[in-house]
Fold:
Amino acid sequence: MYKENKNKLEILLKKVANEWDLKICSINIQTNQNPTVVKIIIKKTNGDDISLEDCALFNAPASEEIENSNLLNCSYVLEISSQGVSDELTSDRDFKTFKGFPVNVQLNQKNSKKKFLNGLLYEKSNDYLAINIKGKIKKIPFDEVLKISLCTLKD
Structure:
């Protein structure tokens, strides 16, 4: 019964989200809490960042939809939030924002025996990624890079 109601609720909330140019990434209903906690993770359909105001604006129509559906027959707390920041760096904005931060570079191993390199993000160009590894700048061609993620450096 719980799963069926959750699925129905998810369908209703996705319709509401579409009206606000939002997409629901996940809905988590924590019935082990008192009151029950309904957590909804949203993102914008155009890819822009979610603001606190976006979450607040979506709260009222989401709450209204939950109330009108009568699918939750208990008191609950509604939490609307964004996915947060991804650890993976993909956009030029990411590379500018996190310059100097520790990164983990996953390599494709075509030309290297190493799977990963760790260092501080130094520079990104169209052709290569440069990281600072213990004071030495290492340029890695992008055709050798699978993934670049934020990490914590260990000595």
About this structure: The chain has a mean pLDDT of 88.
